[in-house]
């Protein structure tokens, strides 16, 4: 990459605060590791509705499609949440995921020791927790036909074999790079789409004999995440189940503000966003935890730009900044978004000084 183009979509609420933090980190990484990044900023969500009446303006969609990667903050908020509203910020995000074809949403979960005290789980349960959720992102009930009349409403859930197969294959491939365990989550005792899901997972399992596969019903999985979270490795699920289970996993990790995500399709281009929302309750106060957004930027470096070393450097700088106790209020600290961001950048530079010293 001579100069990678990153489409920046700050969005609503704390979105602009956490994306600014992630961009500052990316700029430092680029300077230290000697590569060029070009950012272009675009509207999505509530701010886009206010500006032009639609949650995903055509200019934004086109810029994302033309980019090497998209970095997004969050969309939504009370201003646009009326159940009767004709357009919703969240529609913009869903339309973008569909337009980019990013069907596999990777949501890694590790527990930083400083955050562990904010987990509802006891410390002993948290030891060795290292999860990778692979959530199907462009199908299922999120995208099925929706109807509403005076008598009621309906949301259709449908999946094609191809949609199930491609996301499961991504899960298997990732499991091979990790601890070779894959848990497929479904509700096969009730839902037809889940029976197809399980059948497909069983068929594919034969092609990956080196990966240990198990099937869990989603209700039971919600419990197992709390009773023995360290036993799981890669967890693959359909769209809605993955949405719910990953907020549960974020609580296990200590704060929703910590978790990153990478949404990938078949090519290198991806959409990167923290898993949290626009947090209207703390927006505009400079106290949002930027860790999820910064970690998402690291995933962007790894998955879309092929910058493995730079990605690892950013992840360890973030880990070190949390280590030294630069914590935002969601983790019991008194530091703001900017202070944690500065600490991460400080660690990036001192790491690079150490690397240079070692080479010399
Ligand atoms: P939320 O994730 O915005 O907030 C839930 C709680 O977690 C709040 O108390 C919030 O203050 C806290 N929190 C979230 N992120 C944090 C951070 N980085 N640092 C510190 N605390 C943080 O969920 P919600 O309140 O249910 O939703 C608010 C809006 O966000 C809704 O409109 C929803 O649709 C939207 N949303 C958007 C995304 C997205 O853009 N990807 C994801 C989830 C929710
Ligand atoms: C997420 C969010 C979104 C989702 C909403 C805002 C559409 O909750 O990214 O987890 O449900 O996918
Ligand atoms: Mn969610």
TrEMBL record:
Q: Which reaction does it catalyse?
A: (2R,3S)-3-isopropylmalate + NAD(+) = 4-methyl-2-oxopentanoate + CO2 + NADH
Q: Where are the transmembrane segments?
A: none
Pathway of action? Amino-acid biosynthesis; L-leucine biosynthesis; L-leucine from 3-methyl-2-oxobutanoate: step 3/4
> Which Gene3D superfamilies does its entry note?
Isopropylmalate Dehydrogenase
Positions the record marks as coiled coil are none
Cofactor(s) for this protein? Mg(2+); Mn(2+)
A GO cellular component annotation in the UniProt record: cytosol
What GO terms describe the biological role, i.e. biological process, of this protein? L-leucine biosynthetic process
Domain Isopropylmalate dehydrogenase-like residue range list: 5-344
Instruction: Cite the binding residues for NAD(+).
Output: 77-90, 277-289
Q: Which InterPro entries match?
A: IsoCit/isopropylmalate_DH_CS, IsoPropMal-DH-like_dom, Isopropylmalate_DH
Enzyme class, spelled out: oxidoreductase
Q: Provide the residue positions that the database annotates as binding Mg(2+).
A: 219, 243, 247
Query: Where in the cell does this protein reside?
Result: Cytoplasm
Query: Which SUPFAM superfamilies does this entry report, sorted A to Z?
Result: Isocitrate/Isopropylmalate dehydrogenase-like
PROSITE patterns listed in its UniProt record: IDH_IMDH
Q: How is the cofactor bound?
A: Binds 1 Mg(2+) or Mn(2+) ion per subunit.
Residues annotated as binding substrate are: 97, 107, 135, 219
Please name the GO terms that the record assigns under molecular function: 3-isopropylmalate dehydrogenase activity; magnesium ion binding; NAD binding
Q: Enumerate the residues marked as the site Important for catalysis.
A: 142, 187
Q: What does this protein do?
A: Catalyzes the oxidation of 3-carboxy-2-hydroxy-4-methylpentanoate (3-isopropylmalate) to 3-carboxy-4-methyl-2-oxopentanoate. The product decarboxylates to 4-methyl-2 oxopentanoate.
NCBIfam families (alphabetical): leuB (TIGR00169)
What is this protein's name? 3-isopropylmalate dehydrogenase
